[in-house]
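Standup notes
- DV: blocked on the single-chain target, sequence here:
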Amino acid sequence: MQVSGAQGPSVTSYAYKASLIGSAHRFELTDAGLSWHIAGRSGLWRYDEISAIRLSFRPVSMQQHRFRADVSHTGGGRIRILSTSWQTAALMAPQDNGFRDFIIGLHARMAQAGSRAELTAGLGRKTYAAVLAFLAVLTVAMTGLLIRALMIGEFAGALFIIGFAALFAWQVGGFVRRNQPHSYSFDRVPKALLP
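- DV (later): unblocked, structure below
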């Protein structure tokens, strides 16, 4: 991320590589609006033309600490901004400070422009409900297996189920907690959804 403004208007920029093939996705916060360059296309969205921002926590196998911002335009376009960047075939590097500063700067500029964008955090309500339902079914199934293992005296199997459940709860618990759907305001960007 870079901030410049010694001779001209202030510009805050952020870039990441969404894949190994292709150019980096570049974004700039200028006085005129959000400037973006993605896969040979570019555009400038005035801050008051941004209709919605959704922040979420989206870990992947290569990077367990990854955040995402989906920015929507009143004209129907949507861009995705990620907090990680592909470096090599086996390395996805976090860009925590640059992503956090860019997202906070975007919110500040939108607030200054008098934006009425819908600001939401986490997963969509239906998706989140589906995740909770899946976890409830999985919990019932794992509890049934644990009770069955204890009833037939398979203590090694019961210990394995307890260990697996603890690991699963640790891995998935953070995802579920951080992605609880809710609205927020420009001056209260949720810290749990920023690196």
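- Follow-up: The chain has three helices and twelve strands.
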